[in-house]
C-alpha cells in the first residue's frame, strides 16, 4: 500500500472532525448536558481509540472482550487510502423557489463517516454493555437511531424531536458510563424513540451529482468570455486596481513579506523562464526587468484579492492564521510559475489517475494565462489558447485589456487554489466556478461602496464568522439552517452585491 504523510494527515483530520460532529449530534439527542459535559464525552471517545483500540500493550487484556482486529484494520485502511477521481455530491433543497444548499460530500467522506459510525457503535457497546442492550439493543437499532437524527436535521424537524427527546431525560442515558434509570412512565417513549422506524425517507431528491474529472480537465468550466457576461469585464477592469482605490487594501499589501516575494521572483528568473514568457508575445520582447516588475505586481494583486476573500469568508484578523493562508497561496503560485514548461503529452504518461491528468491540464492553463497577462500591453492583446476556455472577441475598446487579462489570471488561479485545497468545502460554499467569480466581483463592488460594505459587515459577516470557514484546509460543519441560508445567499446567488 502506497500513501503519503499528507494524505494520512488529511484523512485523520477529516476523520476527527466527522467523528466529533456525529457523536456530538448523537449526545445532544440522548440527553441534556452543559457544554463541558458534551466535550468530556467526546474526549472520552478519542481517549478510548488511542488508549484501548490502538495501544498494543492492552491487546492481550482486551482480547477476551472483543476481537478488535476487524475495526482496527478497517480504520487503518480508510485513514491511509488515497481516492482518485472520487465523486462529489451536493445536497440541497428547494423551498418557495429558493434553493438552499446543505453542503457537499465526497466518496472519501462517506467512507470516513462509515468508519466513525462503526467505531462509535463499538465504543458505546464496550464501555457500557448493559446500557447498550437496554438503549440500543443491537447495532441495527443504533444505526436506525443515527439515521433518524440525520433525517430530522435535513427535514428541519429538530424542534419536534427535541421535545420528544426531553421525555427521555429522566432515563439519564448520559453520562453514558452511569446506570440507566428505568420507570414505567418512560418505558413506552423509550421503546418508540429508539425502536426501528417504518418510515424511510428518500434522500435522492436532496442529492445532486457533481460531474467527475475528465481527461480534458473540464469540471464545471465557466467561459470568461461569454457575451452574456460582458458586464463582468467592466468590473474586472478595476479589480486589478482595487488596492490603489481602497486605503484598506493598501495596508493589506504592506503586510506582504517582500523579501520572500523577491527571493521567489529571483528563483523564477534563474530558472530561465523569461524566454518562455516572451514566447507569449508575438511582436514585442519585454526586458527581464520589466517582466519581473510585472510579476511582482501580479503577486501583490493575488495577495490583495486573497486578503479581501479571506475577510469575506469570515476571518478579518491579520493573525498567524491569516499569514499562513496567504503563504499557502503564494507558495502554490510560484510552484506553478517555477515549473518547467508544462506539457500534457510529456508529463501525463507518468500520471495514472484521471484526476491527476485533469489537475495537470488546469495548471497548464493557469501558467499560460499568467504568462500571457504578463506580456499584455495596451496596443494589442495576444491570446494563447487555454484549455476549457473560449477565444475572446474584444471589439469594445473601453475594456482595459492588460487589467482584464491580469484580473482573469488572478481569479482563475484563486479559483483553482481554493478548489484544490479543499474541494468539498469549495463545492459547499461556491458550488461552481461561475458563482466563485461572481463572489469575487461582488466583493469588489462592496470594497468600492462604503454603504454596501457596512451592510455586509453588520448583517451577513457575523453569521459567516460563526461557520469558521478559515483555515480553508480544515473541515467544517453547518450546524443550523440559517447558516446554510447565509452561505447560499452570500456565495450562490446572481445578485450584484
TrEMBL record:
Source species, domain of life: Eukaryota
Listed name of the protein: Uncharacterized protein
Organism: Puccinia graminis f. sp. tritici
